[in-house]
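Table 4 source record.
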Amino acid sequence: MSIKPRFAYAILDGSKKVEFRKRRLANDIQKAYVYVTSPVKAVQGEFDVENQVVGTPEELWARFAGVAGIDRQDFFDYFSTTIRAVGIEVGAVKRYTEPVPLEVLDPGGRAPQSVKYLSTVPGVRLRG
């Protein structure tokens, strides 16, 4: 999951408890790898997907404002072109001691625009 540095680090330090998106993740997703976008361009950790809540931006803001990790204006600017919002509730978080190049998780792959699904990651041991 591609996440801007300020939001990625807020998730990884535990202050941001929900990641907002315009689309749901697939129903069977249980773990999200946190790919920190430019200038970092590396996987810095992972989190368990506890739940996905779908509603209007107003409903999600009312429910998650205290743990959103984003200010009200930026939140509503992000959802200004849609009437549906998704809140991905962050469960257990693991921050890696060293950044993991994307190629380790997805050999030959490119950085995702938003989300990229990986079927397996054989033989990869992540230090955290």
